[in-house]
Amino acid sequence: RDRAYNALASAARARTKAVLMLIDLDRFKNIVDSLGYAIGDQVLLQVAERLRSLLVEGDTASRHGGDEFMLLLPGDDSESAAHLAERIIEAISLPFLIDGHELALTVSIGIAEYPENGVDYDTLSRSADSALHRAKQAGGRNFHFFTASMHQHAQELMFLENSLRHAVERDELILHYQPKVEASSGRLVGLEALVRWMHPVRGLIPPGQFIPVAEESGIIREVGDWVLQAALKQ
Fold first, then answer.
1. How confident is the model at residue 148 (pLDDT cuts 50, 70, 90)?
2. Residue 171 reports pLDDT greater than 70
3. CA-to-CA distance for 38 and 6, rounded, in angstroms?
4. Residue 195, φ and ψ in degrees, nearest 5
5. Rounded distance, CA 189 to CA 175, Å?
């Protein structure tokens, strides 16, 4: 709460965003009921370590109570929060090896963003909790934003990112060439290679939609390599 107060005050002064993320372990009670509290405690410790390994300087991870964890992410927005939520879901889905037991676990995540979903800690907490409730209602192992529009936007970004990961290998990218002309003579002196994405279902996707996603996710390196090789080959 104290760190959230300081982070939100800084965000208000700088007019930046912040994210509060509430994480709940799906069906954790089954592990405790079948294997006991000692095993359950070890699971919580390993979950905490995996969460901490995904954070950057300035982020805060805390045990919110029971099998719930809360993350405070100053400076993050809905797009970066969606990427982190995906990484958390993947990290927690990896098996837990404890005292000879191999345990499978999933998480549900509720996300609230400052200032859209609240300007103080208590309001943001309630918003994140409401979003978490919807994530669990959807069956778990997913994340949900507090508002439908933010959630829809995040889902669209995730769709683009997941599709883009296969676009290079499936040969869905194409090049358009823009001529460079010498103004004084009108002579063609070069070409600029511009990448476009021909999605098999959505058709031509403009770079303004997928390049930011590629940059945020790191896929831009593969796209850049493809553009260079394709342009030279052509």
1. low
2. yes
3. 35
4. -85, 140
5. 19
Q: What is the pLDDT of residue 149?
A: 66
pTM above 0.85, yes or no: no
Task: Indicate the residue type of 84.
Answer: L
Rounded to the nearest 10°, the torsion over CA 154, 156, 162, 164 is -120
Residue-level pLDDT at 39: 93
Beta-carbon-side half-sphere exposure of residue 167 (alpha carbons within 13 Å): 31
Unique residue bearing structure tokens 């995540």: 109
Residue holding tokens 């493809």? 226
Which of helix, strand or coil describes residue 35?
helix
Structural tokens at position 222: 């593969």
172 and 64 Cβ atoms separated by less than 8 Å: no
Dihedral, 125, 151, 211, 17 alpha carbons, nearest 10: -20
Query: Of all residues in the chain, what percent carry a pLDDT higher than 70?
Result: 98
DSSP assignment letter at 98 = E
The catalytic residues are 67
Classify burial at 153, counting beta carbons within 10 Å of its beta carbon; exposed 0-12, middle 13-18, buried 19 or more.
Answer: middle
Q: Nearest CA to 135 among 116, 112, 119? A: 112
